[in-house]
């Protein structure tokens, strides 16, 4: 398995976790955030599916998702739900940054940069909702 393939598989698993997390987020987010949660969840589902397709196109069968992705902390009201969204977006940013670093083609690098940009924007949106200042970080995905 190439480093690009391994990075893509990790990004796929992170997208699976984000989709799962957004299910938890939806259960506890403020009602006025329902549209935002649905939009961001749909974006992760689309990225998950596109990543699985990209792996298949490269001759690799994607790993199956885990049965569950437990949150790293208790989520029982809107504030922890928003923090879980930040955590999910942060994890996705790190995964997509790794894909960009290990990309073997311009096409894969472009996909990774697009995904990294999208997840950084979603993270900033959640950070702003939480009142974090600044809402962004200089280098998204840097661990």
Automatic annotation (TrEMBL):
Domain DUF4439 intervals: 7-142
Domain of life: Bacteria
InterPro entries: DUF4439, Ferritin-like, Ferritin-like_SF
Protein name in the entry: Ferritin-like domain-containing protein
Organism: Nocardia thailandica
